[in-house]
Amino acid sequence: MLSAEQIRAHRLLSSGLDRSATSAEALPLWGLGLQDRDGSSRLALAARLPDPASIPPLPDPAEASGLALVWSLRGAPHLHRRADLPALVHALWPVDEADAAARLSGDTGRLAESGAKPADAYRAAVKAMRLAVTEPMVKGAASAAVTKLLPRKYSGHCAVCRSTHVRELLFRLAALPAGIGLVPATKPVVLAPLSDADAITAGPAQGIEGLVAEYYRRHGVATTGEIAAHLGTTAGCLKPALPDDLVPVLVGGTRTYTRAGLLAALAGVDLDAASRLVRLVPGSDPVLQPRDRAVLTGDKERQKALWPVVGQPGAVLAAGGVAGLWRARAAGSTLTITLTAWHRFTARERAALADEAQLVGTIRGAGTTVLEFS
What we know:
This protein is α+β, with helices and mostly antiparallel strands. It has 15 helices and 15 strands. It has a five-stranded mixed β-sheet. Helix 3 packs across helix 9, helix 6 crosses helix 7 and helix 6 packs across helix 8. The longest helix is centred in the C-terminal third of the chain and has 17 residues. It starts with a helix and ends with a strand. This is Winged helix DNA-binding domain-containing protein.
């Protein structure tokens, strides 16, 4: 049996929040990438790097090395190391028709109504996107260009933009296998070919076992369904990729699984080191990604506040777990960070929070940063 406290501590330390890494690329989180929402990945990096000057700007697709911003897991924007992209494409490529259907989620039913098969849709969309996006293009223009190259069955009417275009998730999932990345800080979103697009090939499916192993390394415990949801597929499709050494374990009375080789490390995790960490992390941070949310807080109302349907706040990390929420609002050059406390902060923690708030302000380019407690 393991405690939720032990799993929390493992997740805080295994994602680099102890600021022991000396550079962004040395952080132990690139195996699954770093999700980005409007630049939130830079806040996640700031929470993990000891020197703010070492936090890299979001990369342009035309750059030849370092990191890349792409649509990857679940079609969401993530930062990845460029060197990892060719293997990542193979790992995320559907293994069969059922896996393709699972990855396309809601688009699958709409495609079926048009007589389209998910795996065929994948291949056709990747080919069309590689032909259509040969230079930086606004998302709408890129979607229109791809739509023209595809049979009608791969498109549908969109009530939001009042036009007919290629299915949204299909469009997103086809981008990376086509060698297409995202230009950061653009609204509307701009797509552009990656500098190393020639090294990226669509399929065959291989290597998803590595993503599963990385999930266990980073998060310690998980059910097959939780990992599948993170990777954008189903438990049934993921089952053949599970490690051979999985063992059941109880965490706070809930049955889950870990790898036999991780048990000793999870049981012996440094709880004191984790409890000393004080950080402000964005809502897209890796420690907030696992689906077993009771590990972070068993309080249902706090879960609703931390993971609302829309407008997810940032999390305050202190005392070995989530100690509150934070939101930021800008007015001119002033950034005000409002913190909702779930914990009685010590003087040391309050001083650390003041420093972390200033760091958030620096990353967001604020002239003045104000921290308020509610």
